[in-house]
Backbone:
């Protein structure tokens, strides 16, 4: 994670939050897929719900078919 996100405490907090958010959404990803999440400088000051909304927005762009099914529709806000 880049130092542009913030100091070490901020970077670790963002890393923990993103790791937790991705863990909740793992079943949406294909088994053979590779997901790379890159934190931007704005993520250092973002709240947990904002990080979740941003992650959900990005996932909806790369997994449109998964999110349109009834099982996937309730998983993302």
Residues:
């Amino acid at each position: 994670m880049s130092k542009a996100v913030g100091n070490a405490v901020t970077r670790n907090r963002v890393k923990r939050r993103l790791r937790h958010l991705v863990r909740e959404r793992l079943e949406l990803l294909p088994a053979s897929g590779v997901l790379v999440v890159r934190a931007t400088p704005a993520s250092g000051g973002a709240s947990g719900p904002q990080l979740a909304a941003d992650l959900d927005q990005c996932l909806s762009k790369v997994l449109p078919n998964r999110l349109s099914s009834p099982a996937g529709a309730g998983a993302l806000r």
